[in-house]
Fold:
Amino acid sequence: MQLVVITGLSGSGKSVALAVLEDAGFYVVDNLPATLLGANLSFLRDSGYTRVAVTIDARSGQALRELPPVLDALKAQGDDVRVLFLDARDDTLVRRYSETRRKHPLADGERTLEESIHRERELLEAIGERSHHVDTSDIAPNTLRTWVKEFVGIPAKGTTLLFESFGFKQGIPVDADLVFDVRCLPNPFYDPKLRPLTGRDREVVAFLDAIADAQQMLADIGDFIERWLPCFRRDNRAYLTVAIGCTGGMHRSVYFAEKLAARFGGVATVLVRHRGLRA
Structure:
């Protein structure tokens, strides 16, 4: 079994790290009491799970002292056990709590926020000495996501490109990241022979292939996506939806979506959807 234990200070990014692992296919358990780790892992192992991630924090109190021997026993039996300790400066944690207005988990009405943070550090000291430390004070959430993937050994996955054609008559797709308007190009709709066809049909394809402006716009859109796709990948985007719109969503936008999908099919995972052709 591969076990990743995420611990550390409240407000340091544990939820962000756990979400990364959940997206990578780990079975995740949030805020697991330290005393229940062994029993939970036995159950999950018997159920066939091989990758598990848990967050254990200071709410386990003095039971945290029992955690190191449990982890040592798991390593001794051959499990891949990794402990990630997320930390941040006190002033950063205070600022984050002030921004979210959330209550610190150790705040009991008698401790101030600063005192709760100091108490949390004391409780986590033993497990912190046996962990890989990451200070999140000055890093963005996306940087933390990348570091968590590297720490666990999760292979980087490329951004899936979704090319979606649509008609402006029905409105812009709500999931669109990039929107391109091709209504300025000649419309096959006004050719009686092409009107009942779509941008997938060879007659419409030949019509638009012969228009210089259509080819220039197609190249410009493709070059833009090619230039900025690495930036979206660094931003840990799972999907990048490129919406291409024409008037009715039947001819020009369908043609562009298909052409762009063919261009990027060799360098990325590509999906194509045609909103106007669903009926």
Summary: The longest strand covers residues 80-87. The chain has a mean pLDDT of 91. The longest helix spans residues 212-234.
